[in-house]
Design brief:
By secondary structure, the protein is mainly alpha-helical. It has one domain (about 5-165). It is about 80% helix and about 0% strand. The protein has eight helices and no strands. Helix 3 (about 35-45) packs across helix 8. The chain starts with a helix and ends with a helix.
């Protein structure tokens, strides 16, 4: 992990919800590198407004996911220069992807904690999937995911603090 939980919590303590946007961004900006951002959001749920926390973390994460989209777009441009037939292949893949409700796929991968949204972002950039649609469905998925995590922290940690004898 590149960023420790302590550093992420300190970021939120120093900058409030703007820091939470940065936490979300950092969690998604680094492609295929795990981040404890969800743990930070869970813990912060006990002391910050869970709804605003989820909105902020989701927005930052959606912005960060555009990195994968950009990488895919760059790979596609490099591949197109090397081989002219690539356009036909990309069009076939894009058509196939379009048959299987791509917006739903993007949303589910963004909302689920264990599915590789980075790979979906790279793929969407590669096939030049509509950037605004990609961002919109990643945003919705990430916001829902982080709101649920924040509320789990809000209710879970408050319950533990009020009902479990800690010493």
């Amino acid at each position: 992990m590149v960023f420790g939980i302590d550093a992420l919590i300190a970021l939120a303590n120093s900058f409030g919800y703007l820091g939470v946007i940065l936490i979300g961004f950092l969690s998604s900006f680094l492609i295929f590198i795990p981040s404890p951002a969800w743990i930070a959001v869970f813990l912060l749920g006990a002391v910050m407004n869970p709804l605003l926390l989820g909105l902020a973390a989701g927005l930052g994460a959606a912005i960060g996911e555009m990195t994968g989209y950009g990488i895919g777009l760059g790979i596609q441009k490099l591949a197109a220069r090397r081989k002219k037939d690539i356009k036909k292949q990309v069009m076939k893949i894009k058509k196939l992807f379009g048959r299987y409700h791509p917006d739903l796929i993007i949303f589910v991968f963004a909302a689920a904690p264990i599915l590789p949204i980075d790979a979906v972002g790279i793929f969407c950039g590669y096939i030049k999937y509509d950037k605004k649609r990609f961002f919109t469905f990643v945003l919705i998925g990430k916001i829902i995911k982080y709101i649920l995590i924040a509320y789990a922290g809000f209710y879970g940690l408050n319950w533990v603090l009020h009902n479990v004898p800690l010493g």
